[in-house]
Amino acid sequence: MDDATHTEPGAILERVFGFSEFRGRQAEIVDTIVGGDDAFVLMPTGGGKSLCYQIPALARTGVGVVVSPLIALMNDQVSALATLGVRAEALHSGLDSARRTEIESAMLAGTIDLVYIAPERLMSQRMLALIADAPIALFAIDEAHCVSQWGHDFRPEYRRLAELADRFPAAPRIALTATADPTTRDEIVERLRLANAPLYIHSFDRPNITYRVNERGNARAQLLSFIRDEHLGEAGIVYCLSRRKAEETADWLAGRGVDALAYHAGLSAEVRRTNQQRFLREDGVVICATIAFGMGIDKPDVRFVAHLDLPASIEAYYQETGRAGRDGYPADAWMVYGLNDVVQRRRMIEQGEAVEARKQIERHKLDAMLAYCEQVSCRRIALLAYFGETRDQPCGNCDTCLSPLATVDATREARMMLSAVYRTGQRYGFGLVIDHLRGAVGDDPRQANFKKESTFGIGTHLSTRRWRAVARYLIAHGYLYADPERSGGLRLAGESRAVLRGERRVELALDRGQQKSGNRKADKPPIELEDEPLWEALRTRRRELADRDDVPAYVVCSDATLAHIARQRPTDIGELVEVPGIGDHKASRYGRAILDVVAGQR
Ligand code: ADP
Ligand code: ZN
Hints:
This protein is of the alpha/beta class. It has four domains: about 10-200, Rossmann fold (3-Layer(aba) Sandwich), CATH 3.40.50.300; about 210-400, Rossmann fold (3-Layer(aba) Sandwich); about 405-510, Arc Repressor Mutant, subunit A, CATH 1.10.10.10; about 525-600, Orthogonal Bundle (DNA polymerase, domain 1), CATH 1.10.150. Helices cover about 45% and strands about 10% of the residues. The strands form four sheets. It has a seven-stranded parallel beta sheet with strand order 3-4-2-5-6-1-7, with helices on both faces. Strands 8-13-12-9-11-10 form a six-stranded parallel beta sheet, sandwiched between helices. Strands 14-17 form a two-stranded antiparallel sheet. Strand 12 (about 305), helix 13 (about 315-320) and strand 13 (about 330-335) form a beta-alpha-beta unit. Helix 22 (about 530-550) packs across helix 24. The longest helix is centred in the middle third of the chain and has 19 residues, at about 355-375. It is globular, with a radius of gyration of 27 Å. The two termini are about 40 Å apart. Adenosine-5'-diphosphate binds near residues 49, 50, 298, 300 and 326.
């Protein structure tokens, strides 16, 4: 930015990004960095982290260096910035050396505003020597939780970034992350030497996301009716644990009229690229994916994120579900969960390659995730508490708030099950233990051995399904342990004695079947009936402009921006730049085309 009047942050926000106000603590953060001080920013996905370093990079002299873990992430940011007229580049191995040299010279000459780079490239001898004398506006460390061993996405290369503090004392550093429980947070501060940096915590709440956890039945059928009833024709992500399941689910949904595609690391680069592009560019594609999909996907109009398998931790769950509803309109985080998930996840930890200390961390994280699933009161309160945020009032927008769960006292049944596990020798899995309680003797010859025990047949009052809910509770709360080494054989664990003695009350949610969320009408941006034809025409034109420029439609402008245009019907460029999300560059690039559509509808 060369024009002096542009260097004031508020003016940059308005002229370049087309927004009239900073959000939350963005203004303070920007001021801190512009003033040359460090900052540590915790904001949920979709909270608006990028502006916190992009604006200071434009306001300060020199190039803003942004450390980012993934090439895809870098490229998305660079192309979005290009549509705003900001000079940004990504330096990575995918470029030929001539192109890299060109970008490096631009950094030294100060002719680009932002450069995105991976940590190992930045910390290489060559790069450090190169930029030693370059004008550096700031260092932004994106996805800062990657520096933490406790975090869920550890990358050893991030550790060396601590050296930036000594090597470039004059350049402010800003670390940003969307996932940080208090332990991870402390580790980031220590590892990146940010002890003196103010911590800016934006609330982690995502009020437009409805959280729902359903008891697993026929999971695919549950998913299909969820999509059909509530999200037909809308974009969504379905997370699966395995590649095979991601593919099978996509095929199965596609066979039932849902525009579904698969995405996982086992597909060829070509197929992955095509599927991701279709998801980004078309309106209603559902991606069935492993966790390989997601980082760097900032499509704002994803209307649901569904989990067919239990995530490994609350951080992972929150990051994945955070990809829904970035545009602020209502979106669903939907999950099915059952006893087998628990067993499977435990087995993955125990049989994994990790060292014992790491396994200990993973167990702890899984326990927290299970407790969340078993939650009988407001899920949002529980989620926010996990991130160190207290909230007193139930949110009114999660399944337990929307249809409050009656709970039943299952202390007696919990004791029955624990006794049955004990009396059958702590070696059998759920199936046999539940049969035993229900007085059923199946094909397994071992069952007959325990017919004389006092626990045999004492549980006929509950169905097998309800007994599984009791088992899930006991496992989730650490009273029972399903030993993967002995094919899921159950053992008493933790404080099960206290339950057996009747000192702990056990409350289970009353069976509630499938939950539906509240107000589906609010799903779309609020378009008045009379504005609908214009809205549709604008969407068509947006699609054409996006295809012409080879970018996703939302990069041209968001649904929210289109909705404003349909309502306000600007007649000239002056009125158009008043619309949120339209800055100078977009107005000059797309303004004429948009105004023509508006004029055509008058
Ligand atoms: P994050 O990186 O935290 O996930 P982004 O930086 O991608 O979030 O921002 C999320 C969305 O919010 C983007 O569409 C962005 O344009 C929008 N946004 C950010 N700051 C503002 C603001 N001050 N006013 C309006 N929209 C904003
Ligand atoms: Zn709630």
